[in-house]
Here is the input.
Amino acid sequence: MKNIYIIGIGLIGGSFARDLRRHLPEATIYGIDTNEQHIIEAQSLGLIDAAATQKDLVKADLVVLAIPVDIAVHVLPDVLNHIGENTLVIDMGSTKQAICEAVASHPQRRNFLACHPIAGTEFSGPSAAIEGLYNGKTNIVCEVEKTAFKLQEKVLELFKKMGMRMRYMDPVSHDKHIAYMSHLSHISAFMLGKTVINKEKNERDIFDMAGSGFASTVRLAKSNPVTWTSIFKQNKTNVLKTLEEYIANLNEFKALMEADNFQGIHDEMENTNHIKEILNGIK
Amino acid sequence: MKNIYIIGIGLIGGSFARDLRRHLPEATIYGIDTNEQHIIEAQSLGLIDAAATQKDLVKADLVVLAIPVDIAVHVLPDVLNHIGENTLVIDMGSTKQAICEAVASHPQRRNFLACHPIAGTEFSGPSAAIEGLYNGKTNIVCEVEKTAFKLQEKVLELFKKMGMRMRYMDPVSHDKHIAYMSHLSHISAFMLGKTVINKEKNERDIFDMAGSGFASTVRLAKSNPVTWTSIFKQNKTNVLKTLEEYIANLNEFKALMEADNFQGIHDEMENTNHIKEILNGIK
Here is the structure.
């Protein structure tokens, strides 16, 4: 793969570029971004070699789509209109149903591989890009059978080099499960942050009381609002369901406390302790 | 300080012992614990030199109380009955009102300093003890004026050596604010863990989808249920208040999503983003 185009050169696209530099040093990396400042930054950070436009995509071996998911569904069909016969297009979005539907009957559907590398940090923009972000992470691939085998092959080898573990799933299941495993955590963190800020906004000193436990639980509340609004919009039904269950569990916990049922409180926590085993292997 | 007694030799007491080894190498450290296995473990790990009982406390220079807060309120008055004239007793509990009230009119009140070092991990027991746990952490001291100045002095110097930053607060304010800054995070994490486990218990593969974001948000759900039941019991009123506000914020977020008000969702997250600045300086 000689010519690689990254559309959206922020945390996700930029980190991918850093790994490309390492594993495909001979490739030329082009950046496409509506934010001109990001292009300049990405170039000065060495993430990309040059800026490009959609018209150039005909020369691409690989196109990486790393933009907010609700924009990606509109951009992807157009990208597929511009590519060459042997171009592979991958996306990196946190939702998979809408994007797979958007190109289901596109004549170049076989040039597209729907991916979701479960990796990220709470930061954003080209300067947040880090080498090795994808190392040891799970990459969920959806509808793999709809992508030309020859094209899959070359990128799966690259993913492997980057240290990713591949999992195959249908887009509907992906969106349902990822709502529990990722999207709900973000709402939980954002609302924890809001609750504390609302209460303590006039008491700066109070934040000296924040320990590493609070910092860890609230970390995702630093995440990019544009990225996440886009995800919540696209995965609305699944996310609402997880949110309902979460609120119901919190109300149950509250009712146990109000009833002074502290044995019940203890058992709730003990039963949840086995999240330990589940999390084994995740840093 | 030659003779130091640690009552409760788990994560908190054990980590304190590790720092004592470094900063007061000449001191003899005794352990008191109702869990005999913990005493054996603590001794083999070098956290303590020998086991002791309450009767020995008359010889103590320093007694460190590091047991669940609802037990501490009963143990502390008895400890004060057994100490010598120049013994200082400190506690390490996450709630301060009940313990200060429990000894308010005790004849040895001036031998007690109410402390809350905001430090910990999600693990427990002597084997979880780590050196340097208190380094860079805030230690909230309550009712400092009720402790004999000479006795305060020697332990404040030790805290400083361990790298702690001192803050002074009344116990009622402490318990109110710590409910937001620490206790609520634990409930939020435990119920997130519960929601996900309930949903996904029959789908082991799904946990491959857990990324570092989920791991961070749910981390505190590994915490010790005995420690935390005890804290929720003692700080019930404040914790219930934070929990109500948290649930109200989650319901509001849910209502915005149901109404397809994604500009509102965006603004909620953007307003909370400034948790970044608040968390600056917390690892």
Remarks:
- The domain at 3-170 of chain A is CATH 3.40.50.720 (Rossmann fold).
